[in-house]
Amino acid sequence: MALGLAVPLAAAGTGLAQAAPATARPRRSTRAGHPFRDPALPFEKRVEDLLGRLTRKEKISLLHQYQPAIPRLGLKPFRTGSEALHGLAWLGKATVFPQALGLASTWNPALIERVGTAVGDEARGFQHERPKGWGLNLWAPVVNLLRDPRWGRNEEGYSEDPYLSGVISTAYGTGLQGDHPQYLKTAPTIKHYLANNTEKNRSTSDSVLPPRARHEYYQAAFRPALRADAVTGVMTSYNLVNGRPATVDPGLDETVRKWAGKDLFNVTDADAPNNLIKGQDYYPTLAEADAAALKAGIDSFTSDSEDSSKTVEALTTALEKGLITEADLDTAVRHILGIRCRLGEFDPDGGPYGKIPASVVDSPEHRALARRTAREAIVLLKNEPPPGGGAVLPLDARKTAKVAVVGSLADTLYTDWYSGSLPYGVTPREGIAARLGAAGEVTGGEGVDRIALKNAATGACLTAGSGAEGAVLTESGDGSSTEAQFDVFDWGEGIVTLRSAANAKYLGYDGKVFRNDQEQPGGWFVQQQFVLEKQADGARLVRYAGYETLTDWFGDKKYLKAGEDGTVTLVTKQNATSYQVETVRDGVAEAVEAAREADAAVVVVGTMPAINGREDHDRTSMALAEGQAALVKAVRRANPRTVVVLETSYPQTVTWEQEHIPALVWTTHAGQETGNALADVLFGDHNPAGRLTQTWYRSEDDLPDLLEYDIIKADRTYLYFRGDPLYPFGHGLSYSTFRYGRPRLSSHTLERDGAVTVSVRVTNTGSRDGDEVVQLYTRRRGSRDKQPLRQLNGFERVRLKAGRSMTVRLKLRAADLAHWDVTRGREVVESGVVEVRVGASSSDIRGRTTLRVRGEKIPPRDLSQTTRAASFDDYRGVRLVDESKERGEAVGAVEDRAWVLFRDADLGRGAGKLTARVAREGRGSGTLTVRLGSPRGRVIGSAEVPGTGDRYAYKSVTARLRGARGRHDVYLVFSDEMRLSAFSLR
Q1: Is 689 helix (H, G, I), strand (E, B) or coil?
Q2: According to the UniProt record, where is the region Disordered (predicted)?
Q3: Choices 3.20.20.150, 3.20.20.20, 2.40.30.20, 2.60.40.10: CATH for 736-854
């Protein structure tokens, strides 16, 4: 199963030997002195010794996420999967770095490697306590490409660009696993393989990937870290890819393992094995499903939480029925033991990383690193003088005595699903106040209304509690006390959260009653969401929205109503209580008053990571929440020196703000040091140099359907987008200005296996020291195939003192210019001219030159050879589907008169026969027609396609061809639904 491993791993000294014979009996010996515990032996010998001592039952037990102890051999329990996306999650207080999107926005791989080192150290630091969920197999980094900013998990990825994602993931993974040549500090797992970028129906949605999109885009994000041995395995994704669940993708063995120089340990996503039989309905039994996953390349089953019994039973049954062999078990267990051995678990002293102390967790050094990373991730989107002149940023603390800090995120640091617990938190207001010091003054509030909700019939108000634990919500107050008052936070599209004025806790639902006891909105079902539905008479119905509007488990929408004892329950709309909203405090009015009297106003708005988009929920709007947008406009009218800080997990369509606000700053939810980092940038103590890692669009109308994964055909991402973005990929401003010289090449000719150096002189022409991110893009002039309009091929973040210059050198390899040749199923470097561009963003190009590439010319297609149908050049009305459950892809026509194109085919002196492998599940028969020139062009042959009874039942059909000679664009046109796996024209 582990293809291509034996020789390279042995050569590297860290690989594992071939499987022991299935009939080998476990060796018996005393616990002391087992060879697998001898650090002087090579890893492969230690693993083989331990593998030989395991019983069949013990081997199977190790294939679940929760691997049990094996006392007779002195093995401790082992758990896969500690979350470590931007710091350790779910283990208690630990250093929280900016979200992954923010890490990439630094464009500083050396810094991100340091972050990975810190997170890896903290994982080791927790080994002394081993809290629930602790383990050294870390599930990070995430490299799923941010091809659509509406993805709910946008903050987990790095970029829409595979090159940038590859560089950052390699840096982070390298830091996580340490720099020892053999041992691992931690074992990072890269995820989620493959093309996982939507949450809607995420376990049943199908990511349709034509070959070029798969190889050039989606797989390209995973390859770098695996080739650099910066990660130790992959996690599969929930979705299907071309009709086959990713959990049983044969590419795990046949492709992914070939990228890595060392052995890999592959895992499933949580409960994905169960999806194979429930939801995806791909296999009838769990035994068949788990067997298929194991044979595809899965080594560990993340399923049923801590209960391993179902997995053990399924694999035992699979073994008994011959669906798998003991050699298959040994292959997976060998991968598991190899990782555990490299982690030092079997060494008497725990290996070289075994003594990292608990004191590293949230250490002063890590706090300083968190602050540096947070400020390097900040992107200055806009900085122009308001009416009256003088740029707003940076703020001058000597001249800015009073700053109004307002907005729904001014006083709160929100955490996301995979965030750690903040050991402390510096809010934007606190950071700005600390920077101003005693000589300055910070005014303003959060800019949200404080209200009371009064029963229109009885006059009683919804009332909570004042203690730390709050109280059950009742109708009992008159609105005069804080227990009957709530701060209303608007998160867009009608969704609000209600924070009790009595104890600053959020109102939430526990399935029985409402209580104000929540620190912040969160949980898998975010049960702190409400909608205040306005009625014709101006009153409001309070709808509970914590059931998540995109799910149906809760049933009909429910509304608040108080019973006879005053306790609030949920009822249907017809029985809901009508409430009058009494405004106790007008948040916008307070913000305007503070802004009007301030020297500058800072409005901190953005998103709530558990509400606006997150795991299992894609975004339904890219706009700012209506209430937040109104606050921004009101503050801008009150004070022209307004700065808007966008604290979001994804791009926003802030077109009005870009046009009217003089200064715009963006940051992710950046962890414990958010406020200090913002203050560093706002006051110029740090000259911003963060850059956007994905396109910010002007409107949702700029985007195709969320489930459209063919970025080439759909003109998706900065690579192919032909519109005018709000902010382009790579955008970010500075308080300095930088002049670029003309780019120069070490050679104006590039051989197909060679490389050139692109050099450019960069000068800081400003009055401040600062960083510049020098970006290298290419565009091919002429190609057989559609090419990107621009493509990142290199970058470097450099620091320049004011008035100083330096030469930046970026390497460009011929391999960087390769694309997937569908005619021959391999990468190709085409001969031709490539435009080399150097600049400050994908749109801000400062210099160009040209490079002649000596590669090869793609020849005409030879359709006389058996041709895979999936290797088409263009298509309409088809999907790529699974040829069989085990492997292979076919073209599935899903519309009448669907077609696939095979461009520039040389039919020679005449092709006389069409032979095609087809499957047709439906009744009756259809036709497969060969046309030249267009889908309605000249017919040269047509084959009848009979019903085959099953989508996986293929048969060969033939047809006589007439007039099939010379070079043509060949179209295969389907009369209706059918599948085509391969064909030839001979």
Answers
A1: coil
A2: 18-38
A3: 2.60.40.10
Q: If you classify domain 6-14+55-342 with CATH, what class do you get?
A: alpha beta
d(CA 367, CA 359): 13
| Other beta carbons less than 10 A from residue 278's beta carbon | 11
Instruction: Please enumerate in sequence order all residues whose Cβ is within 8 A of that of 549, keeping only pairs 6 or more positions apart, or say none.
Output: none
Residue 470: how many CB atoms within 10 A of its CB? Answer: 22
535 token code pair: 């009625």
Distance CA 445, CA 404 (A): 8
* Distance (Å, whole) CA 922 – CA 337: 48
* CATH number of 450-585, picked from 2.80.10.50, 3.40.50.2300, 2.40.50.140, 3.30.365.10: 2.80.10.50
How far, in Å, CA of 239 to CA of 193, rounded?
A: 9
Degrees to nearest 5, angle at CA 896 with 895 and 898: 70
User: How many CB atoms sit inside 10 A of residue 552's CB?
Assistant: 9
Give yes or no for a contact between 311 and 63, defined as CB atoms under 8 angstroms apart.
yes
Look up residue 534 and give its two tokens: 């306005």
Distance, CA of 750 to CA of 32 (rounded, Å): 60
CATH of 371-419+598-702, one of 3.40.50.1700, 3.40.50.10860, 3.50.50.60, 3.10.20.90: 3.40.50.1700
Residue the block writes with tokens 């934007």: 428
Token pair, residue 744, equals 């120069």
Q: Give every CB contact of residue 201 below 8 A, 6+ residues apart in sequence.
A: none
DSSP string over 849-902: EEEEEE-BPPPPB-TTS-EEGGG-SEEESEEEEESSSSS-EEEEE-STTEEEEE
* Tokens matching residue 393: 């940023």
Specify whether the CB–CB gap between 38 and 287 falls below 8 A: no
The number of helix segments (H) and strand segments (E) in the chain equals 21, 48
Q: What are the tens digits of pLDDT across the range 266-318?
A: 999 999 999 999 999 999 999 999 999 999 999 999 999 999 999 999 999 99
User: How is the chain split into domains, by residue range?
Assistant: 6-14+55-342, 371-419+598-702, 450-585, 736-854, 867-985
| Phi and psi at residue 141, to the nearest 5° | -85, 165
Q: From residue 712, how far is each of 210, 702, 725 by CA, in Å?
A: 9, 15, 18
- Three-point CA angle 72, 76, 77, nearest 5°: 120
- Which residues on adjacent β-strands are paired with residue 532? 542
For 952, phi then psi, to 5°, come to -100, 0
H or E, element range at 915: strand 913-919
Total residues found in the chain within this entry: 986
User: How far apart, in whole angstroms, are the C-alpha atoms of residue 497 and residue 509?
Assistant: 12
Architecture per CATH, domain 867-985, reads as: Sandwich (2.60)
Continuous H helices in 178-301: 211-212, 223-227, 251, 257-259, 272-275, 286-296
Cα atoms in the Cβ-side hemisphere of radius 13 Å centred on 550:
17
Q: What is the mean pLDDT of the chain?
A: 94
pLDDT in tens, 237-248: 999 999 999 999
Burial environment of residue 660 by CB neighbours within 10 A (0 to 12, 13 to 18, 19 or more) = middle
Residues 6+ apart with CB under 8 A from 321: 287
- Tell me the two tokens of residue 563: 């019973």
3-class state of residue 750 by DSSP: strand
Cα separation of 344 and 670, whole Å? 33
The alpha helices in 321-391, defined as continuous H runs, are 326-342, 364-377
Distances from the Cα of 236 to the Cα of 247, 314, 329, angstroms: 6, 20, 19
pLDDT tens sequence across 377-397: 999 999 999 887 788 999 999
20 or 288, which is more confident? 288
| φ/ψ bin of 92: left (φ > 0), alpha (ψ from -120 to 50), beta (otherwise) | left
